[in-house]
Design goal:
By secondary structure, the chain is α+β, with helices and mostly antiparallel strands. The protein has 6 helices and 20 strands. It is elongated, with a radius of gyration of 20 Å.
Length: 290
């Protein structure tokens, strides 16, 4: 495992979670006592900008919370060159690798520079409506990217939807379904696997298209190369259709909207500690049994 020099860290915690905030401060004080420059903040207080200040970029970011906090931190850090390590104060702890009760041995490894960096592909989502792009959010940077998945799903009414799917400008077919999930390998163990999608090694350069409850349609989960471009045309929007990125940003869709999915040019960087094993995580979290 390569050695990294750690002179500065930026610690972010889940907003409004007092336990996560207290743990973040405790970890920050520990690093300060060891001569490391520390910036601590709730996630929503300038984290994106802080990672891009010339000459002041931290060597590593620590996300204290659950997998949702880790996802938000990775989206904000994507493209900055700063790796993110998750400290789990949530429930599942799939992405947030370090258990809260074991933070000190883990931070000792970080201080010594004993961590690896796992590059993960990120999806970008563009929504075209009558020839014009519709912004997903005007209030958040990197709001149009997803580390886990982009999901098209029904809104308030339980009505089936029709989607016309093309990949690399080649028409595949029209499906009737409750939704469709475009997932990265990182997100393969999330909503996608619940809908029957495959588990993928997280550093693979591919993404998947998985329908949710297809009706009288045969469209098995499809794995495409990372440089592919997928286009999903919404053929009806009765009852409401939402495009949701990482379960965080969402936007209502209209009939004949075109959702364009492709690989973002930059990677998200996830820090991993010595002994990390993706297969061990799959077994530990119950994705593989037997």
């Amino acid at each position: 495992m390569p050695q990294h020099s750690v002179q500065s860290v930026h610690i972010v915690s889940k907003p409004g979670n007092r336990q996560a905030e207290a743990l973040g401060r405790e970890i920050g004080e520990w690093f300060s006592r060891h001569g490391v420059s520390v910036v601590w903040s709730p996630f929503d207080c300038g984290f994106f900008e802080a990672l891009r200040v010339p000459g002041a970029r931290p060597d590593i970011a620590l996300a204290v919370g659950g997998d949702g906090t880790m996802l938000s931190a990775c989206r904000a850090a994507a493209g900055s060159g700063v790796p993110v390590l998750g400290i789990n104060r949530g429930n599942l702890g799939f992405l947030a690798e370090v258990p809260a009760e074991n933070w000190q041995p883990a931070m000792t490894q970080v201080l010594a520079g004993n961590f690896g960096i796992s590059p993960r592909i990120v999806l970008t989502c563009r929504i075209m409506r009558k020839g014009r792009e519709v912004p997903i959010s005007r209030d958040e940077q990197n709001s149009d990217i997803a580390l886990n998945e982009v999901c098209l799903a029904r809104g308030s009414l339980a009505r089936i939807m029709d989607f016309e799917i093309s990949v690399n400008n080649e028409f595949l077919g029209t499906i009737r379904a409750d939704g469709i999930i475009m997932s990265t390998p990182t997100g393969a163990t999330g909503y996608s696997v619940s809908a029957g999608g495959p588990i993928l090694l997280p550093e693979m350069d591919v993404f998947t298209l998985t329908p949710v409850c297809p009706f009288l349609s045969f469209f098995p989960p499809l794995v495409v190369f990372g440089d592919s471009k997928a286009h999903i045309l919404v053929k009806n929007a009765g009852g409401g259709v939402l495009a949701t990125l990482d379960g965080h940003n969402s936007i209502p869709l209209e009939k004949d909207d075109e959702v364009c999915i492709s690989r973002w040019p930059e990677r998200a960087l996830i820090a991993t500690l010595p002994g990390y094993s993706y297969f061990a995580v799959l077994r530990d979290k119950g994705f593989i049994r037997g």
